[in-house]
Prior knowledge:
The chain is 25% helix and 38% strand. It has helices at 23-29, 78-90, 139-147, 155-168, and strands at 7-11, 17-22, 33-42, 47-53, 64-65, 67-71, 97-106, 109-119, 131-138.
Amino acid sequence: MTTGDEPVAIYDRDGGVVGSAPRRRMRAEGLWHAAASVLVRSAAPEAVYVHRRTADKDVYPDMYDCWAGGVVAAGEHPDTTARRELAEELGISTTPRFLFRTRHELGSVRFHAFLYEVFWDGPIVHQPAEVAEGRWVPLPELRQQLDDPDRPLVPDGRQFLAEWFEFRGR
């Protein structure tokens, strides 16, 4: 089975699971789906791991992101997706902590986002097919990147980061 044929969970606009479809169809028709995204944080000094996506990603290629994550597979719980994607993309095998849920809608990219975080000071191993490079970015610098409209941050990651800074300030 190719990546485009893998079955993903299809959601309605309100966040309920309504079935499944091949990933290729979900992308082509702009179907509502779900994704889990994990913010990887370092305890001291307080920083976030930012990576550049590979140039051949199907969505937002060659852009920067601070969230490791992916689409929720058919029959999969978002918690499982978060653990799986974190291990696949960055080689981190641990259970992230759920933060909050939000929605992202930009053109035909429409999904419910389950956001998590994990504190990690161990090794990071990039999945070559998805991550071109990465580094730890101190929170003040990350805030500057967020505020710079010319910084090539993925749109959903930019949205989630702004919401995370707001959530964190509570």
